[in-house]
């Protein structure tokens, strides 16, 4: 091998981790992942709900698993059909099993936002429970998790080649407004240990500006 080609190969190997976002490769059964890894491991001792910051001790009727990047938009992007049909799609099963995208939410909140997209809404838009603004098919999350939402959406888009579910410039602004706090970093590191890959936008929020 010529020296110049060898140097190029070495450079690629050195910088590749900074250029490629790892995917979830450990889990591909959404139901099992949610039951065993999300509730049985990540939140085995309870926690607080994502949007409302409400403490809970275990999964129950009032608390469920929710997806920051809604699965309805994943199904639309993959064109795999109904939820039942998509359960037979390997790519969908991989994406739906990604713990970086799954958070505990109050069931009534999840029912209202599971098909929504994210947007910075006008101050005249109604503000509902937990400081969530809603208008038509859009929601604006509370200030304290806007960055969490932005970084998770960016991860899902760049990792799985999915369409944006919010305006990029708005999400970039949320990322700057709400940098990762101790809770987000702790959760991220636990997911990384369980699942085996990171969300680079949590580790390096400045990456958002490069999208």
Automatic annotation (TrEMBL):
Q: By its UniProt entry, which InterPro entries does this protein fall under? A: Endonuclease-I, His-Me_finger_sf
Going by the UniProt record, its keywords in alphabetical order are: Hydrolase, Nuclease, Signal
Q: Name one Pfam family in it.
A: Endonuclease_1
Write down the SUPFAM superfamilies for this protein, in alphabetical order: His-Me finger endonucleases
Leader sequence segment: 1-22
An example molecular function term from Gene Ontology annotations: hydrolase activity
Q: Which family does it belong to?
A: Belongs to the EndA/NucM nuclease family.
Its name, as the record gives it, is Deoxyribonuclease-1
Taxonomic path: Bacteria, Pseudomonadati, Pseudomonadota, Gammaproteobacteria, Pseudomonadales
């Amino acid at each position: 091998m010529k020296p110049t080609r060898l140097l190029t190969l070495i450079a690629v190997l050195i910088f590749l981790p900074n250029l490629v976002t790892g995917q979830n490769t450990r889990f591909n059964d959404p139901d099992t992942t949610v039951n065993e890894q999300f509730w049985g491991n990540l939140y085995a001792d309870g926690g607080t709900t994502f949007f409302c910051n409400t403490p809970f001790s275990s999964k129950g009727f009032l608390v469920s698993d929710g997806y920051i990047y809604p699965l309805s938009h994943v199904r639309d992007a993959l064109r795999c059909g109904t939820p039942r049909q998509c359960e037979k799609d390997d790519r969908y099963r991989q994406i739906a099993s990604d713990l970086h995208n799954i958070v505990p939410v109050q069931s009534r909140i999840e029912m209202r936002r599971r098909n929504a997209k994210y947007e910075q809404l006008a101050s005249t838009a109604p503000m509902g429970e937990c400081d969530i603004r809603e208008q038509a098919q859009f929601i604006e999350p509370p200030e304290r998790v806007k960055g969490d939402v932005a970084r998770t959406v960016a991860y899902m888009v760049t990792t799985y080649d999915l369409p944006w579910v919010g305006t990029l410039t708005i999400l970039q602004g949320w990322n700057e407004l709400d940098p990762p706090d101790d809770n987000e970093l702790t959760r991220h590191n636990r997911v990384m240990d369980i699942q085996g890959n990171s969300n680079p936008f949590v580790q390096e929020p400045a990456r958002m500006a490069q999208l």
